[in-house]
């Protein structure tokens, strides 16, 4: 069991606007017990697999995701097993704010993992921002290949001048100038024009998957 279960439980509590006390009552534990499950201090205690399964059942998410970060909230265990039997591999998924640490060789906390075809084993997953009504029901995970050179019209994960954290952009190079669009929307004017030295491309988006929210 990975320590990431703490972040996953905390995220579920915030998403559903559930208090520690309400969760404790739902699984037959005391409020203080839930607090000890979630703390990283000296009073921390570790929940049993049975308790985590009860928490998963309460939030209507998959236990293998809550306990181990395998798959996503709603991927059936049978689907995970089938993917493994088809030689699939799993890659970790991170928030954009953790990518700098990841590429620096650190081991930042992930938000989970997803099974992917073997050709994407060199990639890592990053939460892709979605807007509008779709964002209330779905999260998008982009697979980023840090070893792939980008070409025109690729969506990339990159850092622009003055922004310490990376974001997703579509790039088109004309001559020595790189035209930059935010995300995948190229219907409007480019938001930036930069040179090769002004943009730090961290990887190319090669594939993505959608995860349904609770």
TrEMBL record:
<feature type="domain" description="HTH cro/C1-type">
    <location>
        <begin position="9"/>
        <end position="66"/>
    </location>
</feature>
<dbReference type="Pfam" id="PF01381">
    <property type="entry name" value="HTH_3"/>
</dbReference>
<dbReference type="InterPro" id="IPR001387">
    <property type="entry name" value="Cro/C1-type_HTH"/>
</dbReference>
<dbReference type="InterPro" id="IPR010982">
    <property type="entry name" value="Lambda_DNA-bd_dom_sf"/>
</dbReference>
<protein>
    <submittedName>
        <fullName>Helix-turn-helix domain-containing protein</fullName>
    </submittedName>
</protein>
């Amino acid at each position: 069991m990975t320590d990431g279960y703490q972040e996953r439980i905390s995220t579920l509590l915030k998403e559903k606007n559930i208090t520690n006390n309400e969760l404790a009552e739902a699984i037959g534990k005391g409020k203080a017990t839930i607090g000890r499950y979630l703390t990283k201090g000296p009073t921390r205690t570790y929940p049993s697999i049975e308790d985590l399964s009860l928490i998963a059942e309460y939030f209507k998410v998959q236990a293998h995701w809550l306990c181990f970060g395998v798959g996503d909230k709603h991927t059936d265990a049978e689907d995970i097993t089938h993917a493994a039997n088809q030689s699939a591999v799993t890659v970790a998924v991170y928030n954009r704010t953790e990518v700098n640490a990841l590429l620096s060789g650190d081991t930042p906390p992930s938000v989970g993992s997803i099974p992917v075809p073997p050709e994407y084993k060199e990639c890592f997953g990053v939460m892709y921002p979605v807007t509008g009504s779709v964002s209330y029901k779905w999260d998008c995970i982009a697979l980023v290949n840090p070893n792939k050179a980008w070409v025109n019209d690729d969506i990339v994960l990159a850092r622009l001048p003055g922004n310490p954290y990376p974001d997703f952009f579509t790039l088109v190079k004309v001559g020595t100038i790189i035209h930059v669009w935010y995300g995948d929307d190229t219907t409007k004017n480019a938001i930036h024009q930069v040179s090769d030295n002004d943009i730090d491309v961290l990887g190319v988006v090669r594939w993505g998957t959608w995860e349904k929210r609770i």
